[in-house]
Design goal:
CATH architecture: Up-down Bundle
Structural class: mainly alpha
CATH topology: Growth Hormone, Chain: A
Shape: globular
Radius of gyration: 16 Å
Number of helices: 6
Largest sheet: none
Distance between the termini: 44 Å
Number of domains: 1
CATH superfamily: MFS general substrate transporter like domains
Strand content: under 5%
Order of helices and strands: HHHHHH
């Protein structure tokens, strides 16, 4: 893949994040954080499935469609986490909660950044993208369990 194709893939992820979270915030205010979290993680899961399908069948158009779908929900997830954190924590505890959220996010990026290349080298690119689906399934289960709290 050349640099231009990679840049296009990144742009198709980033462009929806410029305005979609604003509209999603209004929707989440109506349906609630719990259901908003479930729908958002479900959207990320669907986006990852589309991306994986595009990689598996070497379809650049499908890959771009998946990135758009993934991008429509990815930053909304961060917004939901921030909204929930402000609800649960007050005053001086808020900074600690944001620090822990950022640290956990960084830890997940580090683990993924080291695990995915290992899977790629061992089993190939399809397995590496398939592992992303498994992480999304885990996230969906955790989001649904959030409703039970």
């Amino acid at each position: 893949m050349d640099q231009t194709s990679y840049s296009i893939i990144y742009a198709f992820y980033s462009l929806p994040n410029m305005c979609i979270p604003i509209f999603n915030a209004m929707i989440i205010e109506r349906v609630g954080l719990g259901w908003g979290l479930v729908v958002t993680t479900g959207g990320i899961f669907v986006g990852q499935c589309i991306i994986t399908t595009g990689v598996r069948f070497k379809s650049f158009g499908t890959l771009l469609a998946g990135r758009i779908f993934f991008g429509m929900f990815a930053d909304t997830l961060w917004m939901i986490q921030m909204m929930d954190t402000t609800r649960w924590f007050i005053n001086h505890e808020y900074q600690l909660a944001i620090g822990l959220m950022t640290g956990c996010s960084g830890l997940a990026l580090t683990v993924g950044g080291n695990l995915i290349p290992y899977i790629y080298k061992k089993d190939g690119i399809n397995s590496a993208f398939q592992s992303g689906i498994y992480f999304c399934i885990f996230s969906c289960v955790m989001a649904y369990s959030f409703l039970l709290i």
